Amino acid sequence: MIFTLLLTSCLNEDPVDNDDDEIADLQLDLSMNEYPRSGDIVGNLSSNLTGTVEFELVSQSVADAMIIIGNDLTVGDWLAYDYETNETITATIEASNETETQVINVEVTINNIDDIWAFLSASREEYEVAEDGDWVPIIESEYNDLANYLAEVTKSGATDAHFSSTASLVSFQAATVANDNGNTIPSGSYLFAFKNYSWANNAGNSKVKISEGDAGGPYMNVGSTLPLHNDEYNFFVLKGAESSTSAEAYLGMYASVNPAYRNISGTSYRWNNSDTDNLDNSSIDQVFLYQGLSTTLKQWD
Which residue, 103, 95, 17, 6, is CA-closest to 51? Predict the structure, then answer.
């Protein structure tokens, strides 16, 4: 992944107090965008000491966030630079010329950016030009990064185990379907990504739906219709999700052509023909292959 790095610094140096033979501390103020890469330079280190100076990282507010390489303060654990987790990171560094020591107090301000944008690479340009409320096609690795690295993410619908099951895939007719297996969207969540398995090419007019409080409905559409997509696995992200759930919610979808399911014992689902809000029919031992990502923490503009 490629990340944009914004780096500013302000080095405030207090004069050395020669009368007391004390070397005053330095303050180094920096800023950086969320999600840099490990090894990116946070800032350059310098001191008032003469001769050959070496720098030692004495302490930091987030473990492994920074590493000193020569005179450079660099990113260690890039996940520490998440605005929603740490708005600032501080550190204490000692500069030494083997005779004298000077303390450098570092404060790094994390700049808040669109976290979804940060984890897109191949799909970033299409995401940038999309309108709020549009579902944007993304690739599998981007979906997985969003699932793994955004804060407070919940998966709803089919589980990862359902997707990886060796149970045979079966095609279903066009219908509105909803898995009813307890894999729900928590109250106060923003649905922001979706994946499904389609049995047909040129699948258009499919819709993502949620129902708050009851697996049978009523269901409401989330965002625009899904972009035209082909058979097998498809991945999408929602641009500018603004509405959170007010109760526990069930994730469903209207599949305009041939959604796929697996026969898995102990599971259940609700369904109805056509694009509808209420699912009056129920069946067991089948799981439709779709999944949503949601979070209770809005991490985008």
Answer: 95
Longest distance between any two alpha carbons in the chain, whole Å: 87
**For the chain, what's the residue count?**
301
Phi and psi, residue 116, nearest 5°: -65, -50
Q: Are 100 and 54 within 8 A, CB to CB?
A: no
Contact 80, 264 (CB under 8 A): no
Write the pLDDT tens digit of every residue in 117-165: 999 999 999 999 999 999 999 999 999 999 999 999 999 999 999 999 9
CB neighbours (10 Å) of residue 166?
5
* CA nearest to 207, candidates 195, 183, 223, 192: 223
Stated as kind and residue range, the H or E segment containing 75 is strand 72-75
Whole-angstrom distance, CA of residue 13 vs CA of residue 41: 21
